[in-house]
Amino acid sequence: MRIKGDIIRTVRKQKKLSQVTLAAGICTQGTVSNIENKNVCDSLEILDAICKRLNLSLESVLDDNDEKKLTSLLNRVEELCNTFKHKEAHSLLKSTSINVADFQNKELEVRWLYFMGITNLLGYNNTTDSLFYFYRADELGDSNSVYAILSVNSLGIVYEMANELDKAQVYYEKSIDMLKKMTIKIPIEATKVFFNTAKFYSLIKNYETAYDLAIEGMALNQTYQSLYMLDLLAYEAAFNDFKRSPELKNPDFNSAKVFATFNNNESLLDVIASDEKSLLR
Fold first, then answer.
1. 198 burial type by CB count under 10 A (0-12 exposed, 13-18 middle, 19+ buried)
2. Backbone angles phi, psi at 65, to 5 degrees
3. Residue 146: closest CA among 185, 96, 101
4. What CATH architecture applies to the domain 5-61?
5. What is the pLDDT of residues 207-239, one digit of tens each?
6. DSSP letter string, 22-57
7. For a tag site, which of 30, 67, 100, 248 has the least CB within 10 Å?
8. Torsion angle of C-alpha atoms 24, 61, 225, 27, degrees rounded to 10
9. Which superfamily, per CATH, for 65-182?
């Protein structure tokens, strides 16, 4: 993809970072050099990680073209999905006239496929279309594509909703394995993978694994100094810790309540209030 490498070079120098330091844990120094001097980057995940390290928005370094427009649209779609407005997000996706399949940038196409799948699934309970989009994203993506991993994880959700728990477990486990194979820093969006998979293991009463996954999701937030889904993860950690620990008299939802209050998550606060009355030994 074509990018504005001069912006990255300028901000890097303002922050007194060498190309080697900027690249550390993300890519090679040669990749940073190509970004700054040739205005190209083959990986959206790498470019996004570099922008985050420099406190730049991804849109600010993309050339003014359809890729930039679609990136901006998908960012808005993601915001809507994070607040459970999946129907509105789906309408926004359907409204674009941009032909994603024409892009050289396969990672952007994978991201579009994931959101088409998740908005069909959670907005309209359309499992047929969502399966198509998720499988296609898995085919196109690679081990460093978080949206391919999210698509595989979402296949687990589809089969869990259909009560095909053995199939669901296959895809939940595959998505966690894919995260472990990433050669770049795990993006914050992977929090959803940890949360969804923790919920599933709690459902099948594997409370130890559910607890461990919730803790991993919380640790990822700590890495990014983020509150992303932290209320839900803290709830899963407390619930599953109680279920796996017979010596505990009641679950400790204090952290979950603090984060849920901060995020105005009234539905989670209602669940916690109910659990505090019923989960007693």
1. buried
2. -150, -170
3. 185
4. Orthogonal Bundle (1.10)
5. 999 999 999 999 999 999 999 999 999 999 999
6. HHTTTS-HHHHHHHHHH-B-S-HHHHHHHHHHTT--
7. 30
8. -20
9. Tetratricopeptide repeat domain (1.25.40.10)
